[in-house]
UniProtKB/TrEMBL annotation:
Transmembrane segments: none annotated. GO terms for biological process: D-xylose metabolic process. SUPFAM superfamilies: Actin-like ATPase domain. The keyword Membrane does not apply. This is ATPase. Residues 287-485 form the Carbohydrate kinase FGGY C-terminal domain. InterPro entries: ATPase_NBD, FGGY_C, FGGY_Carb_Kinase, FGGY_N. It comes from the Bacteria. Keywords: Carbohydrate metabolism, Kinase, Transferase, Xylose metabolism. It comes from Brachybacterium alimentarium. GO terms for molecular function: kinase activity. It holds the Pfam family FGGY_C.
Length: 548
């Protein structure tokens, strides 16, 4: 059952229409890697309408980027699609919102001058040319500072002597930028902020000691600004992040129908909204978000043994410490292969819709041998830091005696989607001994019930739960953060419930979860496959060196 089904089951048509006419729904909008999505919910999280817009990154001037003009046209198209869905489902026009929240891909580089003009093309999380800057920061701050973090991109620009650096007045993420344009506030939620620069132990501000260490670097001695002055203000979930201005409402809805005034949640990254969408905000819980990239977020009970290259230390939207395992690649190569099979079906004169195509081929993968019969799949559309691959080339490799069947091919494709993630999670679960009671999962790969979920449970040797929100993803999670912010804003000075309590008591209490335990044969087969996968990484690295 999807959240759309939940809304139709739990709300009369008249009740939903009345709520919408009164301007009391909550909107979450997320700019993902391949889709901009919107979810409109009521106070308990039931989805009233959705919208979407497809978009793609571009590789321009040796950098992965999205133009901000495409971002705005996509946001407007996504919102218009949501308005159409409201009209078709409920017979009313959407003119008001109780609250709004913006989420987007984390990290990357968006720099602006004092007049708000963009100084350089948006550099996304996918770019891996910041290795020297990342290494210098990791040594200086004595923490693992990943290639994709905003401060790595900033230092990379400084080291390269880029002409725009002296003119930087404001540095933010994609979510922070959109929120700024809609509300006038230059703020960022704790989860997204923790991917720009390390936060203090309190989780509600950038670490002042580490800011001083950055300032003491010889390489930044000549810049005319101080890092704290160009970073956004950090807010935790529920804090006042402004409201939708008249200019922001017109930007979101050029038709002029949308009123201003909606309470705004702190803008968040897709990792934070994934945690909220899966109720993974308490210690010993975690979540996997799978899309173009994949990342696992594990809420920590205590500190790790020390800095590790495989593990990023970030926070929940409430500022609690989280270990993050991030991979640049997940479903892109799998989707490309399924597109090949879809085209083959068309040539046979028997076209298959995407749901049928995925369920049929995923089902074949479930029937494959536990070790995929000696078939290896590397889904590296881009470089992969988790496995030390600087430049990716998707590869299908098999042993001479491999059992090359459709079933084993698809099993290997599913393993490959989570291959780099499995490598990183070994460092966290085995080497660091972090305890996990359950891993929640969401993303389109889990829409075919049970198959990718079982693969992941076997790969992590951990129970994996998938809920009704598995296919909704971060836009729904962001809408929940918006609803929570509206709740705290209406508390009239009384202590509001925590985000954890809000989720457990008011959103997930009645939601059905499907939990799969790891299978002994599946774990053993995956371990064999992963060992071969590690060995074959040398071939993947060589492909990047030789194939342009």
């Amino acid at each position: 059952m999807t959240h759309a089904d939940v809304s139709s089951a739990d709300h009369t048509a008249a009740g939903a229409a009345a709520l919408l006419e009164a301007g009391r729904p909550h909107l979450g909008l997320e700019l993902g890697s391949t889709r901009i999505k919107a979810a409109l919910i009521d106070d308990s999280g039931a989805v009233l309408a959705t919208g979407s817009h497809a978009w793609e990154n571009e590789f321009s001037d040796e950098s992965w980027t999205y133009s901000l003009s495409n971002a705005w046209s996509g946001i407007q198209d996504c919102y218009a699609d949501l308005v159409r869905d409201v009209r078709e489902r409920h017979g009313v026009e959407l003119t008001g919102l109780a609250s709004i929240g913006i989420s987007a891909m984390m990290h990357g580089y968006l720099a602006f001058d004092a007049e708000g003009e963009q100084l350089a093309p948006f550099r996304t999380w996918r770019n891996t040319y910041t290795a020297d800057a990342s290494a210098l920061l990791s040594r200086t701050l004595e923490l693992n500072i990943p290639l994709r973090w905003s401060v790595s991109h900033l230092l990379h620009a400084i080291l390269g002597g880029e002409e725009h650096v002296p003119r930087i007045a404001h540095l933010t993420t994609l979510a922070g930028y959109v929120h700024w344009q809609l509300t006038g506030r230059q703020v960022l939620g704790a989860g997204d902020a923790s991917g720009m620069f390390p936060l203090a132990a309190s989780g509600d501000a950038f670490d002042p000691e580490l800011l001083e260490r950055f300032a003491a670097l010889d390489e930044v001695a000549d810049v005319p600004w101080n890092l704290p002055d160009i970073l956004p203000e950090v807010l935790v979930a529920g804090q006042d992040a402004g409201s939708l201005t008249a200019e922001g409402a017109a930007l979101l809805d050029p038709s002029g129908a949308l009123r201003s005034g909606a309470v705004a949640a702190a803008p968040e990254g897709d990792a934070g909204t994934g945690m909220v969408a899966t109720q993974a905000v308490d210690p010993r819980t975690g979540n996997v978000s799978a899309g173009t990239s994949a990342f696992a977020m594990v809420v920590l009970e205590g500190p790790l043994s020390g800095p590790r290259e495989e593990i990023d230390l970030v926070t929940t939207p409430s500022g609690d410490p989280v270990a993050m395992i991030h991979t640049n690649n997940c479903t892109s190569d799998l989707d490309a292969w399924l597109g090949i099979f879809g085209r083959f079906a068309e040539l046979l004169g028997r076209p298959a819709d995407p749901e049928e195509l995925y369920s049929t081929l995923f089902g074949a993968g479930a029937d494959g041998e536990a070790d995929a019969g000696g078939v290896l799949s590397y889904n590296y559309v881009s470089g992969e830091h988790q496995t030390g691959v600087p430049s990716g080339r998707p590869l299908l490799v098999r042993e001479q005696e491999a059992r090359f069947t459709l079933e084993n091919f698809m099993r290997s494709q599913l393993y490959g989607a989570f291959g780099a993630l499995a490598v990183g999670m070994e460092a966290l679960l085995k080497d660091e001994g972090v305890q996990l009671d359950v891993m929640y999962a969401h993303g389109g790969i889990f829409r075919t019930r049970g198959i990718a979920q079982q693969v992941l449970a076997d790969a992590l040797a951990t129970p994996v739960a998938v809920g009704e929100s598995a296919g909704e993803g971060g836009s729904w999670g962001m809408a929940l953060l918006a609803a929570y912010t509206a709740r705290t804003a209406a508390a009239d000075g009384s202590a509001p419930t925590s985000l954890s309590s809000f989720l457990s008591e008011e959103v997930f209490a009645s939601q059905e979860l499907s939990t799969l335990q790891p299978d002994e044969a599946g774990m053993a087969g995956h371990a064999t496959w992963l060992e071969s996968y590690r060995t074959g990484l040398q071939v993947e690295r060589l492909a990047g060196e030789l194939l342009d």
